[in-house]
Amino acid sequence: MTEHDIAYPHPMRVVHDGPPQAPPLLLIHGSGASSGSWNPVVPALAAHHHVVRVDLPGCGHSPPPPSYGVPAQAARVAALLDGLGLRHVVVVAHSSGGYVATALAEARRDLVTSLALVSTGPSVDALLPQPALLRVLLAPPLGPLLWARRSDATIRRAVGATCARPVEIPDDLVAELRGTTYRAMRSVLRANGAYLAERSVPARLAALGLPVLVLFGTADPRWDPASAREYDAVPGGRVELLPGVGHLPMFEAPETTGELLLGFTTAGADGRSA
After folding, report:
1. Taking the complete model, does pTM exceed 0.90, yes or no?
2. Is the residue at 270 inside a domain?
């Protein structure tokens, strides 16, 4: 694994795994998370791909951007891929990272060959009442103070509140999550809401004609698991439901998640599992 900072068009932390000459695979994390949220599945993916992970601006070790708008975030990721000289990239995204991935494909169809979305809410109506701890940490006027003072144990509990199974959150990921500020988290959530309100993800994907894989836990506490069926409207799309899994399949069911992602990412242009 190697990591460095990229300064175009806005500074972003980038982590590389796997052979540089292998087919490129971009991993995008979700709201307030970081590149480390992919750690459990990276070894399997890096055996077959040049895996590129980013900390989106304002998250993890990347400084905040001028705008958190989803298209603006996608433009920054596109510039990063251009700067790295990468073409024909498979993009895998978790949660709201799926909005950045979709916007990237909308803007740069020449860059994206296929999309895999993990726990990505398809529409505004699919959002569930959020776990109590997250609501407390994000609600003004006390939210900013509680967010700034949150302990490592609180960060672990907040992550665990989105899961249906016990998970172990390592120290390095906790440190990365601490890098996301209250302002960044609130800004990202507002930007995501605006993007979804404009048009649902399945409607956007249906217009693109890309191979699409959707992974969704049947016990996701953040998005209605039944909403995964909204992606059936995407021509050529494939939906895989993970029984008893919550919002973080990479940690709750890493082997199954890694196998499904690898089958999709190595399948070729038609996106069907090998």
Report:
1. yes
2. no
